[in-house]
Amino acid sequence: MSGHDLQFDRACGALIGMAIGDAMGMPSQTLPRTDIIRLYGRITTFVDPFPDHPVSHGLKAAQVTDDTEQAFLLAERLIADQGALDETRWAQDLLGWEADVRERGLRDLLGPSSKAALDGIMAGKPASETGRNGTTNGAAMRISPVGIACPINPMSGLLDAVELACRMTHNTGEAIAGAAAVAAVVSCGIEGLAFDAAIEPALQAAAIGQKRGFPVGEQEMAQRISAALAAADTGLSAEALADGIGTSVASHESVAAAFGVVRLAGCDPWEAAKIAANIGDDTDTIGAIAGAMAGACVGQSGIAPNAVKTVLDANDLPLEKIASGLLRLRSNSEKRFADNTRVER
Question: Around Cβ 192, how many Cβ atoms within 10 Å?
Answer without folding.
Answer: 15
